[in-house]
Design brief:
Helix content is 59%, strand content 15%. It is of the alpha+beta class and 297 residues long. The chain has a seven-stranded mixed beta sheet with strand order 2-1-3-7-6-5-4, with helices on both faces. α5 packs parallel to α8. The longest helix has 67 residues.
Amino acid sequence: MQFKAYYLSPEGDLKHDLTAQEIKAAFESGQGLLWVDIAETTEGDSNFLEQTFNFHHLAIEDCVSPLIHPPKIDDFGDYLFLIVHGINYAVESEIVETAELAIFLGHHFVVSNHTVPLYSVEAVRQRVEDDGRPMRRGANFLAHALVDVLIDNILPTIDKMTEIAEDIEEEAIHGPQRATLEAILKLKRSTLRIHRIMAPQRELLNRLSRGEFPLIKREAQIFYRDIYDHLVRIEDLSQGIRDGADNALATYLSSVANRQNETMRVLSIVATIFLPLTLVAGIYGMNFEYMPELNWE
């Protein structure tokens, strides 16, 4: 089991690299702020989560399962269980891959769980080790930092997809090839994957920002509202890219049809020229002895 644990004591002292026993003691104390980040979750981690934190087994199953789960939020009374999605930069693929981040949010603890490395978690962890700032305002602000950086890391992918969409549109107009069609379809699949996670994720952040859950303090709600605004912007940009891909596909099909029409026009001209010659050659090429004009000088 790979995990990193930090504990901010009520006196403001930050402890690093806690052991499993220290994590359990800090959790049971009910004071300070405990953050445990678990990476590359295995079946053994389920026992750790259940025995140490007494989390619900259904939430633990979502953490351990390799299946993709949609963004959601469950209220278990003493804590919230969130699943949010970001971009998976750990794999190289021409089609956008997403990655899950599961968060258990309580009054004095945050437990984050992910099966692939996430730059966003690493960035927050680095800030915690530098000065502890993300943890000094409470658990709901630490959870906000994790989600905020995760969502912000989607924007570089959106910018790259925008550039690809512009290049594809130019290719579709001036020189459509088979590779152009493949690039358009890959771009459409990428935008569809982003749309599938943005729509439910936007509702999730809306619920967190409107005071539905007592664990999210009033002073933190406006920060979750800011993440919601970012999601709306990302979804609008994604919709624009998807529309651009649709336009590029229509342009590609139109360009291919125009090229086919041009080819048919050339073939029609050639056929018009050679048809009379073929007719004459066919008539005078027949093997008849008494055929007019055969003995003419």
